[in-house]
Amino acid sequence: MKLELRGITKRFGSFTANDHIDVVVESGKVHALLGENGAGKSTLMNVLFGLYEATEGEILIDDSPVRFNGPGDAMAAGIGMVHQHFMLVPVFTVAENVALGDESTRGPGVLDLETTRRRIREISDRYGFHVDPDALVEDLPVGVQQRVEIIKALVRNARILILDEPTAVLTPQETDELLGIIGQLRDSGTAIVFISHKLREVKAISDTITVIRRGKVVGTADPTASTTELASLMVGRSVMLSLDKAPAVPGEETFRVEHLTVLSDTGQRLLDDVSFGISRGEILAVAGVQGNGQTELTEAIMGLLGHVSGSVTLEGRQLVGRSVKQIIRGGVGFVPEDRSTDGLVGTFTVAENLVLNQYDRAPFASGLGMKPAVIARNADEKIGEYDIRTQGGQINVGTLSGGNQQKVVMARELSRPLKLFIASQPTRGVDVGSIEFLHRRIIAERDAGTPVMIVSTELDEVTELADRIAVLYKGRLVGIVPGDTPRDVLGLMMAGAASDGAAPHTTDQTGTDHD
């Protein structure tokens, strides 16, 4: 089955998300759509899947124009989509999830789940999925849940399969398994649209690569193209993909977490007896698949959660029990994982957001009054220093792109003397060129003697920045290993397996037992 997108344009008011995009996907081929977050890739696929109606252009299947009024029409035409955020009901079984939306019955009001179970087993056996039709989805690992999504599409006889950022929540081993599955699907004649911003994976699986930047196709490439070439196409200029950094020279350990435990309102352990330390002048990167306690770790340290026990000390001073304001004023810089909700006030100006943590202190205030001229001058300096793309400091920060909003947060947090710097997903939604810049700023903070903790689900980022790597799994610390630990070892740890050289979850990097 051949798919062609011809001149697809999608506008939201005055904003053009897709601008006259042409793409052809052949049967038995993997066609990668490569681009930064916000480039328009997912919007384009939502048009294809009938979730959005194109403003202009047409979709052709086997050279015949088609029109979709919703996902049902797209699925009926042989198109399946696995969304970045899975569309599964956790308390339903695999078979019940697969049957949703395409229910067959064997009598009034009685679902025919046995036919669905048989089809799941057939597909699972054919591709080596190892999926139990009667397993509850909430009990399945993330990688298996993704296979359920693929099975949903294949049960409906999809001949064109769209995979939207399919490796975002997978361990390296699960990613390799998925790429193997995609290869099998391709060999069986399925046309695959592989949407990603990860160069390594695109090169590994693609037959053809189309690069999208700011809603437009800016080029096509062969998978033999270098990562540097692909990155340059993505951002429109040459970029350095490897970070040149000197080895860390750790000093005194000034930040210490001991037996940190976080409970949910219902008593569930979200973080379980975690202990580690960070020294001056080193970066500890916390790795793990999203949802394994990373968020709770940073928020507990920052005083954002209740039901916290254990100890968190900075230069000997206890942070547990202190307010967020007290912790920040105590010299902690914090970049939250959700900048729009927790890092910025969208209706405030860029200038105001740049002093949110110091608005009532000199030099930005005197007594009860703020100093607008000083705040404006600070904004001009930081906009230039961090290359924040804005028309000026008086523009509302909510109108900036995600990457530029992230630069505002980073600029604010790194613009004062720090005793500890914590950044959660520091480059999420940031283009390759800006990632290079922000990584250099993080390294510079380390080299200035600050203890740094980075939390990232991007394993490339973890290995690029880390002097040591701590891996969390289901709220527990699997171990702490050197920054040059191989990816396959880290992947096993992210799946819960301790590795040789990794400290068990009850020990710190010094080997001291804390049980």
Automatic annotation (TrEMBL):
It comes from the Bacteria. Residues 3-239, 255-499 form the ABC transporter domain. Keywords: ATP-binding, Nucleotide-binding. SUPFAM superfamilies: P-loop containing nucleoside triphosphate hydrolases (SSF52540). One of its GO terms (molecular function) is ATP binding. Gene3D superfamilies: P-loop containing nucleotide triphosphate hydrolases. PROSITE patterns: ABC_TRANSPORTER_1, ABC_TRANSPORTER_2. Pfam families: ABC_tran. This is ABC transporter ATP-binding protein.
